[in-house]
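In this section we walk through a basic example: taking a raw amino acid sequence and producing a predicted 3D structure, encoded as discrete structure tokens. The instruction is simple. Fold the sequence below.
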Amino acid sequence: MVITDPTAARALLDPSTVRHLAPFLGSELSVSEAAEISGEKPNTVLSRVRRFVTLGLLEVSREVPRAGRPIKLYTAVADVFFVPFEASEAESLEAALAERERYVEDLLRHNVVRGRLEALGNWGTRVYKDERGRLQVQTAVTPDANVTMLDPGAPAVLSAWRDAVMLDYEDAKALQRELYELLLRYLRYDGSQRYVVHVGMAPVLR
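The resulting token sequence is shown next.
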């Protein structure tokens, strides 16, 4: 389904909203079943479901008879939604990407800070050149040494940016594929803790 309504487009482009629609894509669920999946209260889920119905993104697929009121089962009106740029209300494609990623960027940053605080307390930033003469900006608790969250027992947090990775095109494509395949591999896991993961790269053109 191609979405042209700005309000529906806004809901689909908001990561904090669209994830509540996800259980209904290709599935029939009651409000209580959706609440069990999300771990939230049924009344909270019902409010969101009613909003999605109003926006034309969910519909009642059927009703299951029982004593009293029948149980309504909801499903997404399409298996795939497409929001063209023109419906996004963003000023530019760059602004649209920034708006879409802001939620997960904030989520990542907040939880990296929380994980480091629990492990290190307050920390500082160490700026220096390494043995290869490259600028390094690293988390540290003293002027003499960096700290790492890779130590056994430390929280599994990571925020590593490098803006001067010098690669030929073939090596860059190999890194692109490896990063994507690594992410897909771990997405197949079904562990007990939810993590936010960001993988990104691009040639610096200006």
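Looking at the output, two observations stand out. The chain has six helices and four strands. Helices lie at 6-13, 15-18, 31-38, 42-54, 93-120, 169-187. In the next section we compare this with other chains.
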